[in-house]
Each structure stands twice: as structure tokens, then as C-alpha cells.
């Protein structure tokens, strides 16, 4: 166990993030965006965090990179507590964790040249002598397969895929060990997405990077992630290896998700679990239903589901499910 | 493409240009598309390929001052939409063709109730025949339309404003609007894209059920090949303003011919795993100065000098399977 713990680069324990949105007679009203999440990321792996909009996956990303102060819980990075906002983190730690945002159109300053965009992280985090800065920037562009003359272009003059490549180069500049990818390709076309994903996978091998990959696209995760965690309303409901996930999904929500994915081959069609018909809608995170948060849409609902929130149960090695269907058999 | 019999909509060699500073964006460059009665047709392509422009030209809702149709015909029931006068167009929009837009939040007016907005659609579709339409009749018809799309408590929803409904419910309202009076052709422009997967699944199932029940034809515009495969009978693949390949859904996925279709199909991540292909290099051409010949040629692995000279025409490679590529002609 001790050895296993050593190999974890990021460990999130009982993380909660509430946003106050107003108050009524009973007291303040909160959006419970992340409500008690546990997971860990091992060195060199890709953990896919999948969920629909409003499930809290981006909030986790932003908390890990220090854009939010967690309400409670712990985030350990290389066994160091990083449960604070970025300004309070030491510089040496900030450079270790970088992020790539969803929309490169708004994450890159349109008034800066790409040279200026890449220069700041280099000057701030690496001790590159001034003379070698340009060389270093060209090297970064090479890593993402962009020609050196792109240094003098500005973001609006290049394509969406190329912009995202620049954002990746910027994230690579301080030599990080963990990169948080927040839906890096969902604003792009599939043919461009394929190119960026392949580049990311190559870079991971080349530079020993660890990815926390956030997305709503399950089929993308099948090809990219080592392990996948599914989120629903601020909680994780299933964690498993990518392959197990699609062969043997256990949580009813996971089954509903996988059977809703539109596929392009017969082979995939056979892989889909028995159709779990999607019913109802995602409740508001202000008003999370009591008990299991999924029970309103669950086809296998039992009386206990609306009363008690299920525990995380490890049904097989590394396969964790949060559902009464499985916790009950455990008790027997 | 030989038969004129039994065709509801027939687009022939449609060109659409947009006026910008410095010239014209030559967006559509010879689009051919046919829809038969009761048929589900998919129009697939990446962002900026002209899918929505094609659909807007069917309804003639392109910006009138900034767009130009230099060439082409859009025959609806044998009559050219481009030559219709205002009254005929009104009739087309109110009685024949309905459109469902991608973003239901933008499609609904935030300051009017759902009832008022559906009521308008019904009023105008009826007004063509009857001069005075009773309020009561409109209300019952609106409530019935909402019931058709499985919205609970339709009477209450009629008095609601769009912001009081969720995204999925708003899209249901838009679908209800489009079927509130009988139509022959539905155009659905990415109806599930702005919604979550499980909600998208619900919306697509609903659309499919409605189309089957009413026997309406539908053109489903989507960027997702998976959605097109599950929803449609026949698929058109579009690239940079031209149709590059069209076939029955089954044939297209079994035997894609055009290099673009193949690249696109390979780029889609599969739930069976196995990694992702390298994607398609380059990006969609500049419409101000499109490349000569085949518009896909600058990104194509198989391009030769022939491709730069003249754009290839659609040729039939198997039954109902047309491809616009010189490779397929050899």
C-alpha cells in the first residue's frame, strides 16, 4: 500500500467546493459544485474525468490549478498540500501544474504575439538566459509542430487547432509534471481533434507528463485515458480502467451514458450495453435530491436510494462504484 | 439523381456567395441534394463547410443585402424557390417547411411566453386559409403540440417564459413549434449539439419518433457522423461548399470512398478503443480565394495535377452512392 501511495502524483481527498449564490430565511444558498470527491492520479498516467455539464468537472480542474480555494478537503500534489489559491502557492509548485483551457480563442490574448505569449512563462519559471529565449521558444513551437515564423503571428490570424497547439506550448514552457486538460478539443472539429490528441499522447511519452483530462466525450476517453472517473452532480459515481469501463460498466448512469453515445461502426454497436433509456434531466446543483443524486433518473431505483447516499465500493481491483445495487451485495 | 419523379426537394448546382470587404466569399460551390417524401436525410460536415448556408437558402433566410446566389436551382415540389415571390415564400415557410435551430435558447424570444410564440406559428399557418382564427383553437393546438413532444403539464408551460425551462425542454418546445401545424419537410440544424449526451439522446429519439409517426421528410444537419448514422437513411458529406460523397447510411460507413470521408471517419474516436488516426492535415480553405479544382486537393494525400485543374463531378460508384473524386472515376 505504501508503495502504491508513493506512485501517486495527485491525491484529492474529500474535496468540496461550494459557491454562495444568495440567501433566504434559512441561511445562505450554495451551489454544491463539487461535493466530496476522492481520486488520485498516478505518475505518467492519464486520468479521464467525464461528466455532463454542471457535474463539477471543471470546478475540480480549477481547484487543482489554484483558481479556486476549496471549501473543504485536501489536495495533495507530490505529498504536499496544495489546497490554496495559486497566489499563495510557492513559485516552484506553480510551475509544476499547468492547464490548457477549452477555448483557445479566449485563453490566448488576441493583442499579444505568440512570442509574447510564450515568453512570460519562460521568464517567470525557467532560468533561461535572455539570449537563449528565442531559441527556447522556437523549440517549444517545434514540439507542437508549428514553424518558427509563428512567433510573430497573433492568435486571431491562425486557425483554431493551431491556437490550441500554442496553448499547449505555453503549458509546456515551464517544464510541468502535471497538465490539466479542460476539454482541450471540444471546440474543434474531429479531424483537428485527432491531430491534437495524437500530439498530446506523443508529448506525454516524450516528456513523462501526467494528464488530468477533463471531457464530456466518452469515446475520446476510451482512446486516451488509462483510467476513467465518471462524475454526476459533484460526485464521482464510478472509477475504472478505460477498458473495463466499456466492457463492464456497472453504475446505471455509466450505462446510460455509454448507450447514448452515437457510434460509427457495427463493432461499437455490439459493445454498447443494453440500452438504458435516458429519462429525466439533470437536477440543479442548488437543489441536489436527497440520497443518491441519480435516483430520479435511475431505472433500477430502490426505496433506499432516495434516503441514503451510497458509499464508494471497490467491486474489483481498481473498479470503484457508488451505487446501492453493489453496496448491498457487499453487506451480505 | 436521374429521376424527377417522387422528389420533394431537389437542389441543383447551388452556388451561394457572401459579400465581404475585399470581394465575395464563395461559400457554396455547386451543391446537389435531393429529398424524397418521408425520407430522413443527413448532411454531415465540419464547421464552416456550408451546411447551415445550404439550409438557409432553402428557406430564403440568407441576409438579403450581403448574399448572392449566382447559380443554381432549389426545386420544391417542382417549383424553384429562388424564383418565388413574397407570398409564395410566406406560404412555403408557414405551411411547408419548418426549421429547428441548434441553440434553442437563441431561437426562442426571451420576452414572450412559450404560448405566445407557438401561438404565432399556428396563427400564421392557419391564416393562409382562414382569415380569423379563434384564440381557443390556437390554445388547444399549442397544448397538443407540447403534449406530442412529451412535455409535462403543457398548460403551465404555455404561460412560462423560455428562461424558466431547461435546455432540453426548450429544444422540445422548438420541436413542438415545428410540428404544431402539418409540414412536409423539417430541417433540423444540429438539434442536440448544445445539449448533454443523455439529453441529446432523448431529443434525437423524439425527433425520430415524430418523423416516423407523421411521415415528414427531415434534413438533419450535424457534424457528428455517429448521429447521422443512427438517425438517417441517406447521408450527404459536405466539404468546403461542395458535396463530396453521398450514399445510403449503411453503404457510407461500410465503404467510404472519398479521401475526406475516410479521413473524417478515421478521426472519430471509437468506443472500442484502438487509438485515433492522424486526422486530416491543414484546414478548410479560404473562401475568398478558394483553391482551383477540387477544393479538398490541398489537404488530400492522393492529390495529383489533375485535381488542380477542374473540380470533379459526382459519379455513381454503386447504387445510390455518388462520389466527387477523380480517384473514384478511374
Overview of this structure, please?
The complex is a heterodimer of chains A (332) and B (330). Chain A has 332 residues and is of the alpha/beta class. Chain A has one domain (2-96, 176-331): Rossmann fold (3-Layer(aba) Sandwich). Chain A is 34% helix and 25% strand. Chain A has helices at residues 2-6, 57-65, 91-94, 104-107, 114-125, 133-143, 160-172, 190-207, 218-224, 242-247, 252-260, 266-271, 324-331, and strands spanning 8-24, 27-42, 46-51, 72-77, 80-81, 97-100, 178-182, 210-215, 227-232, 235-241, 312-316, 319-322. In chain A, the strands form 2 sheets. In chain A, strands 6-7-8-3-9-10-12-11 form an 8-stranded mixed beta sheet, sandwiched between helices. Chain A has a 4-stranded antiparallel beta sheet with strand order 2-1-4-5. In chain A, β11 (312-316) and β12 (319-322) form a beta hairpin. In chain A, α5 crosses α6, α5 (114-125) runs parallel beside α7 (160-172) and α7 (160-172) packs parallel to α8. The longest helix of chain A has 18 residues, at 190-207. Chain B has 330 residues and is α/β, with parallel strands linked by helices. Chain B is built from 13 helices and 12 strands. In chain B, α4 crosses α5, α5 packs across α7 and α7 (167-179) packs parallel to α8. The longest helix of chain B is centred in the middle third of the chain and has 18 residues, at 197-214. The two termini of chain B are 21 Å apart. The model of chain B has no long low-confidence stretch (mean pLDDT 88). The chains are: A alpha/beta (332), B alpha/beta (330). The A-B interface holds A 52-53, 159, 161, 189-195, 197-198, 216-220, 222-224, 242-243, 246, 256-258, 260-265, 267-268, 271-272, 278-279, 281-282 and B 46-47, 166, 168-169, 196-202, 223-227, 229-230, 253, 263-281, 283.
Amino acid at each position: 500500500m505504501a508503495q502504491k501511495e508513493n506512485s501517486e502524483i495527485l491525491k484529492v481527498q474529500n474535496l468540496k467546493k461550494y459557491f454562495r449564490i444568495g440567501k433566504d430565511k434559512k441561511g445562505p444558498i450554495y451551489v454544491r459544485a463539487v461535493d466530496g470527491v476522492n481520486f488520485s492520479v498516478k505518475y505518467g498516467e492519464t486520468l479521464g474525468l467525464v461528466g455532463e455539464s454542471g457535474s463539477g468537472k471543471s470546478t475540480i480542474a480549477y481547484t487543482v490549478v489554484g483558481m479556486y480555494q476549496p471549501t473543504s478537503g485536501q489536495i495533495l500534489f507530490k505529498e504536499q498540500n496544495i489546497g490554496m489559491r495559486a497566489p499563495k502557492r510557492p513559485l516552484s509548485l506553480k510551475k509544476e501544474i499547468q492547464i490548457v483551457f477549452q477555448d483557445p480563442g479566449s485563453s490566448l490574448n488576441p493583442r499579444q504575439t505568440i512570442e509574447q505569449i510564450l515568453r512570460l512563462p519562460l521568464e517567470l519559471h525557467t532560468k533561461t538566459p535572455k539570449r537563449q529565449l528565442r531559441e527556447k521558444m522556437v523549440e517549444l513551437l517545434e514540439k507542437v509542430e508549428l514553424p518558427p515564423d509563428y512567433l510573430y503571428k497573433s492568435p486571431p490570424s491562425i486557425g483554431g487547432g493551431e491556437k490550441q497547439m500554442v496553448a499547449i506550448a505555453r503549458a509546456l514552457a515551464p517544464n510541468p509534471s502535471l497538465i490539466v486538460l479542460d476539454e482541450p478539443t471540444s471546440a474543434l472539429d474531429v479531424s483537428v481533434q485527432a491531430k491534437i490528441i495524437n500530439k498530446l499522447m506523443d508529448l506525454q511519452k516524450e516528456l513523462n507528463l501526467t494528464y488530468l483530462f477533463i471531457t464530456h466525450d466518452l469515446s475520446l476517453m476510451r482512446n486516451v485515458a488509462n483510467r476513467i472517473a465518471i462524475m454526476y452532480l459533484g460526485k464521482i459515481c464510478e472509477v475504472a480502467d478505460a477498458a473495463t469501463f466499456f466492457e463492464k460498466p456497472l453504475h446505471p448512469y455509466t450505462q446510460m451514458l455509454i448507450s447514448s453515445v452515437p457510434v460509427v461502426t457495427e463493432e461499437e454497436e455490439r459493445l454498447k450495453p443494453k440500452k438504458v433509456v435516458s429519462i429525466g434531466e439533470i437536477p440543479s446543483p442548488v437543489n441536489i435530491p436527497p440520497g443518491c443524486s441519480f435516483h430520479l433518473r435511475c431505472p433500477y431505483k430502490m426505496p433506499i436510494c432516495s434516503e441514503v447516499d451510497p458509499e464508494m465500493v471497490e467491486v474489483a481491483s481498481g473498479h470503484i462504484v457508488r451505487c446501492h445495487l453493489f453496496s448491498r451485495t457487499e453487506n451480505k | 439523381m436521374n429521376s424527377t419523379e417522387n422528389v420533394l426537394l431537389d437542389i441543383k448546382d447551388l452556388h451561394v456567395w457572401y459579400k465581404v470587404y475585399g470581394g465575395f466569399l464563395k461559400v457554396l460551390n455547386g451543391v446537389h441534394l435531393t429529398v424524397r417524401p418521408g425520407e430522413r436525410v443527413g448532411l454531415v460536415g465540419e464547421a464552416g463547410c456550408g451546411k447551415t448556408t445550404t439550409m438557409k437558402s432553402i428557406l430564403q433566410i440568407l441576409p438579403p443585402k450581403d448574399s448572392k446566389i449566382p447559380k443554381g436551382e432549389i426545386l420544391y415540389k417542382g417549383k424553384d424557390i429562388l424564383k418565388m415571390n413574397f407570398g409564395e415564400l410566406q406560404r412555403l415557410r408557414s405551411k411547408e417547411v419548418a426549421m429547428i435551430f441548434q441553440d434553442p435558447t437563441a431561437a426562442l424570444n426571451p420576452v414572450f411566453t412559450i404560448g405566445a410564440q407557438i401561438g404565432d406559428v399556428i396563427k400564421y399557418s392557419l391564416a393562409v386559409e382562414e382569415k380569423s382564427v379563434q384564440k381557443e383553437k390556437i390554445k388547444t393546438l399549442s397544448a397538443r403540440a407540447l403534449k406530442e413532444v412529451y412535455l409535462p403539464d403543457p398548460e403551465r408551460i404555455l404561460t412560462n417564459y423560455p428562461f424558466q425551462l431547461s435546455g432540453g425542454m426548450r429544444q422540445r418546445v422548438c420541436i413542438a413549434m415545428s410540428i404544431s401545424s402539418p409540414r412536409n419537410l423539417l430541417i433540423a440544424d444540429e438539434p442536440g449539439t448544445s445539449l448533454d449526451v443523455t439529453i441529446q439522446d432523448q431529443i434525437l429519439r423524439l425527433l425520430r419518433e415524430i418523423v416516423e409517426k407523421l411521415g415528414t421528410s427531415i434534413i438533419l444537419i450535424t457534424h457528428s457522423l455517429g448521429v447521422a448514422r443512427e438517425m438517417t437513411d441517406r447521408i450527404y458529406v459536405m466539404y468546403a461548399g461542395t458535396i463530396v460523397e453521398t450514399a445510403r447510411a449503411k453503404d457510407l460507413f461500410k465503404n467510404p470512398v472519398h479521401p475526406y470521408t475516410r479521413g473524417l471517419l478515421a478521426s472519430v474516436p471509437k468506443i472500442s478503443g484502438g487509438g485515433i488516426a492522424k486526422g486530416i492535415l491543414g484546414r478548410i480553405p479560404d473562401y475568398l480565394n478558394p483553391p482551383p479544382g477540387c477544393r479538398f486537393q490541398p489537404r488530400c494525400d492522393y492529390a495529383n495535377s489533375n485535381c488542380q485543374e477542374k473540380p470533379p463531378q459526382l459519379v455513381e460508384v454503386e447504387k445510390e452512392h455518388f462520389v466527387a473524386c477523380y480517384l473514384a472515376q478511374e
